[in-house]
Amino acid sequence: MRRIQTGRLIALLIMVAGISTAGVSLHGLIERTYALGGPDELDVPYVPTPESVVEKMLDMAAVTGSDLVYDLGCGDGRIVIAAAKERGARGVGIDLDPERIRESKENAREARVTDRVMFVRQDLYNTDLRDATVVTLYLLPSVNLEIRPKLFKELKPGTRVVSHDFDMGEWTADQIAEVDGSMVYFWVMPANVSGTWEWTMPGSAGKERFVLKLEQEFQNARGTLTSGSSEMPVHDVRISGDQVSFTVDQAAGDEAVSVRYEGRVNGDTIQGVIHNPDGQSEGKGWTARRDPSTVVPIDNSDEIPL
Ligand SMILES: C[S@@+](CC[C@H](N)C(=O)[O-])C[C@H]1O[C@@H](n2cnc3c(N)ncnc32)[C@H](O)[C@@H]1O
């Protein structure tokens, strides 16, 4: 389900309202969009991100020489070119408009970064994003929502996503900034920790079996940890990239002590350490394994018929 016509129209009007205040002529914008074969061809009209906002986007995503930055709808290529020239990153710019791709290649030549960037005329919806470590967007609210399931399907946990002016609906941003009247939204792709995890650890009465059940909503999760006959809620769950941590108030004799579990998620395994109430590592490790059939996709909104 790719296009939501009413949503797109409303979003386009919102964008146009913002753009007209930024000094770009509405008439020129619509003329350019229609000249390319009508609004059905491009999902978003071409409007460049101001340089100050480009800098902020790259700062928030903490782009370095080890990154591969994808700009979906790259316009004149300014975001990936700045990432390559100023931060030493590699970049891929995707745009459906051949004129934008020509411009981007010319700009990359002028900036002497052709060895680190490439520009491809392609529909962003058909672009394989699995290699990206950073994804930049200046699209529309409805287009952000339409590509959100694709981001969750293809991007690795820890990949940074940064969007000029438009958010991702109920996937709230990890950071928000304002630069020269523009909003910048930043997210880190969370690992999917949903489902049922199990592990054993030596306890006072021999080997103890633990069962952790987690339900996830984007970067937030809640659930329970069961050991023997006691089921305890987990709280302060934090998921950042492939790192997960949570606290459980576990019984210790007549008292309850807060124990913090920290771990790294790798597919259906979490491996990490346990911290006691003083924040010190008890030196105890935990390795949990998940029943793969219990995983729930984080965002399957593209499967909901509209
Ligand atoms: C608002 S501009 C952003 C340009 C650039 N990312 C920047 O921030 O300066 C959106 C760009 O998306 C391109 N575009 C629109 N629909 C697209 C699609 N389905 N696939 C790829 N590019 C698309 C347009 O040609 C335009 O250059």
Notes on the protein architecture:
By secondary structure, this protein is α+β, with helices and mostly antiparallel strands. It folds into two domains: 47-188, Rossmann fold, CATH 3.40.50.150; 195-294, Lipocalin (Beta Barrel). 24% of the residues lie in helices and 38% in strands. The protein is built from six helices and 15 strands. The chain has helices spanning 5-21, 26-35, 51-60, 78-87, 98-110, 141-154; strands at 68-72, 90-95, 117-121, 134-137, 160-164, 175-179, 182-188, 195-203, 206-217, 220-227, 230-240, 243-252, 255-266, 269-275, 281-290. An eight-stranded antiparallel β-barrel has the order 8-9-10-11-12-13-14-15. A hairpin with a 2-residue loop joins strand 10 (220-227) and strand 11 (230-240). Helix 3 crosses helix 4. The chain is elongated and about 70 Å long. S-adenosylmethionine is lined by residues 42-44, 46-49, 71, 73-75, 78-79, 94-97, 100, 123-125, 138, 164. S-adenosylmethionine binds next to helix 4 and strand 2.
Total helices: the number is: 6
Q: What is the alpha-carbon Rg in Å?
A: 23 Å
What is the annotated CATH architecture of the largest domain? 3-Layer(aba) Sandwich
The biggest sheet, with number of strands, parallel, antiparallel or mixed sense and barrel status, is: 8 strands, antiparallel, barrel
Report the principal-axis shape.
elongated
Average pLDDT figure: 87
> What structural class do the secondary elements suggest?
alpha+beta
Give the helix level as a range of percent. Answer: 10-25%
Poorly predicted runs are 3-13, 19-40
Ions, cofactors and other bound molecules: S-adenosylmethionine
Strand content: 35-45%
CATH class of the largest domain equals Alpha Beta
Tally of DSSP β-strands: 15
Region (Disordered): 274-306
Enzyme class: transferase
GO molecular function: demethylrebeccamycin--D-glucose O-methyltransferase activity; protein-lysine N-methyltransferase activity
EC number: 2.1.1.164
